[in-house]
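Sequence, please.
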């Protein structure tokens, strides 16, 4: 702790300093002994158990503000929790029945802004944020039992990938569109399999014409933060039209 005593105090000042340091060490010892006893016998920290749950949840939510997507999910979860948890609800009232009650709210009562039941994935996400706050409360000493581990989370819905058949894509090619660049970008995406985020940021330096019938796109994939090399067909390359300046975006317009 870097608290030291003068072995042979020379004056009143050093004796006073020794007395203050002994008192400080004794106070720290008392606090650490108290923390040990509370942990050993699962005794709640009274000051922390008197905290309001929703205030604590808000605090944890604000810690996520550096991630827009994650923060948005925490905010949505918070708006729902305000509907089923009293603002004066304290941590010393938390028990397994409370956690089950919140889960039942998400399962049967929670509605979207359009007054529709929550999707399975929304239930999964919002309830998991609630459980994450309980785990943090346990780690911080607000509760002596990790209730998050005692109630099972919602199952996550299996995602369904949509795709166009050849006939549907051909019909799209023959359909007029107000914004031609949008239509071209979508058809190109279907032909090469790139995401919108990759299509939207594609620049001409990333489009490589390496032979009469050899064309390639080099792009940065967000998920792995690395450069990928994708061979594309002549049909896909023809959609892009004439080459422009290296730094120009391929698909630009309204």
């Amino acid at each position: 702790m870097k608290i030291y005593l003068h072995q042979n105090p020379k004056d009143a000042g050093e004796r006073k300093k020794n007395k203050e340091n002994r008192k400080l060490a004794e106070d720290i010892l008392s606090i650490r002994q108290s923390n040990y006893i509370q942990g050993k016998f699962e005794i709640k920290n009274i000051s922390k158990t008197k905290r309001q749950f929703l205030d604590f949840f808000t605090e944890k939510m604000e810690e996520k503000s550096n991630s827009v997507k994650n923060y948005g999910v925490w905010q949505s979860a918070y708006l729902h929790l305000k509907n089923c948890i009293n603002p004066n609800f304290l941590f010393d009232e938390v028990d397994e029945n409370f956690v089950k009650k919140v889960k039942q709210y998400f399962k049967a009562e929670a509605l979207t802004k359009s007054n529709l039941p929550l999707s399975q994935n929304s239930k999964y996400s919002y309830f998991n944020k609630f459980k994450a706050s309980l785990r943090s409360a346990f780690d911080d000493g607000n509760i002596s039992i990790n209730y998050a581990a005692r109630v099972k989370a919602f199952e996550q819905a299996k995602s369904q990938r949509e795709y166009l058949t050849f006939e549907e894509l051909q019909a799209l090619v023959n359909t007029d569109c107000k914004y031609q660049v949008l239509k071209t970008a979508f058809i190109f995406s279907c032909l090469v399999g790139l995401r919108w985020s990759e299509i939207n940021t594609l620049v001409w330096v990333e489009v490589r014409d390496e032979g009469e019938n050899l064309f390639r796109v080099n792009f940065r994939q967000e998920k792995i933060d690395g450069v990928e090399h994708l061979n594309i067909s002549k049909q896909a390359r023809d959609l892009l039209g004439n080459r422009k300046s290296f730094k120009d975006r391929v698909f630009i317009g309204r």
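Strands lie at 207-211, 214-221, 226-232.
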